[in-house]
């Protein structure tokens, strides 16, 4: 649910991450070595055992 101001009007979408949440996501990506779509490329690069 979107945040509401004193008049009961929605002030923005509820799915937008806060600064703290964005920082947590960024730090977890750095810790795992994953940037953007890199994880998709890595999964394609792994061939099944022959």
Topology:
Layout: H1 19-32, H2 38-45
Tags for this model:
mainly alpha; 0% strand; 44% helix; 50 residues; elongated
Summarize the structure.
This protein is mostly helical.
Outline the structure in words.
This protein has 50 residues and is mainly alpha-helical. Helix content is 44%, strand content 0%. It is built from two helices and no strands. The longest helix has 14 residues. The chain is elongated and about 65 Å long.
Multimeric organization: single chain
Largest sheet: none
- The share of residues in helices is 40-55%
Mean pLDDT: 70
Q: What class do helices, strands and sheet pairing give?
A: mainly alpha
Order of helices and strands: HH
**Rg value:** 18 Å
**Tally the helices: what do you get?**
2
Low-confidence stretches: none
Shape category: elongated
Record field, number of beta strands: 0
Strand content bin:
under 5%
Distance between the termini: 50 Å
